[in-house]
Amino acid sequence: MRTLVHLSDLHFGRVDAELLDPLRDLLHGIAPDVVVVSGDLTQRAKSEQFEQARAWLDTLPGPQIIVPGNHDISLYNVFRRFVLPLDRYKRYITDELEPVYIDDEIAVMGINTARSLTIKDGRVNKEQVAAIRARLGGLDRHITRIIVTHHPFDLPAHADQDALVDRAPMAMQAFSECGVDLLLSGHMHASHSGSTADRYQMSEYAALVVQAGTATSTRGRGEVNSFNVVRVEHDKVEVDRYGWDMVGKMFSVMSTEKFLRSGNVWAAHTDGLYAAGL
Question: Which of 25, 26, 155, 203 has a CA positioned 20 to 30 A from the CA of residue 63?
Answer without folding.
Answer: 155
